[in-house]
Amino acid sequence: MAFSSALILWSLLAINMALPTLATVYTVGDTSGWAIGTDYSTWTGDKIFSVGDSLAFNYGAGHTVDEVKESDYKSCTAGNSISTDSSGATTIALKSAGTHYFICSVPGHCSGGMKLAVTVKSGKASDATPTTSTTTATKSNSSSASSVSPIVAMFIVSSISYYVLRML
Ligand SMILES: [Cu+2]
After folding, report:
1. How are the residues of the chain apportioned to helix, strand and coil, as percentages rounded to the nearest 5?
2. Which value, to the nearest 10 degrees, does the dihedral of the CA atoms of residues 74, 61, 84, 97 take?
3. Which candidate, 2, 26, 156, 17, places its Cα nearest to that of 102?
4. Residue 44, domain extent
5. Total-model pTM
6. CA 86–ligand 1 middle distance (angstroms)
């Protein structure tokens, strides 16, 4: 009984240590890719994006991935883009919280559906402390500072009770 609970706590500890390192790469539109005729608001609907995740846009020739401001996203205006790429495989790292907007700058494509708004969360609650460190550093800090220690404490307590029970 005590042995199995110690085992469970070990597994919890392992899972907890693994989680903060998982940065997700989302393939935009999944198998549809970045194309006209895909509803990207449906695609984003069931996803939670966090700082550190990435967007992978896959598309054929004749398209672009432009990061734009909200107003340009709404009006499908190209020309003031924050960044642009037409390589066919564009990976965008989501480095800051808030909403990021992407359109295809080829005339008619944005209004044809090639527009994507992604709301990015700041990640783990303890990541809210703004520092100058990189995302990776912040994440490893948070995992040692807040996520792991309660589990470690629980494990120590359970180990002690296991040995106490074994001695009885
Ligand atoms: Cu296009």
Report:
1. 45, 20, 35
2. 60
3. 26
4. 2-167
5. 0.64
6. 9
Gap from CA of 103 to ligand 1 centroid (Å): 8
**108: CATH:** 2.60.40.420
- Tokens 């402390």 sit at which residue? 129
CB atoms within 10 A of CB 144: 12
Whole-number Å distance between alpha carbons of 16 and 127: 16
**pLDDT tens profile 77-102:** 999 999 999 999 999 999 999 999 99
Quote the number of domains for the chain: 1
Q: How far is the CA of 24 from the centre of ligand 1 (A)?
A: 25
What is the distance in A from the centroid of ligand 1 to the CA of 63?
Answer: 4
CA of 102 to the centre of ligand 1 (A): 11
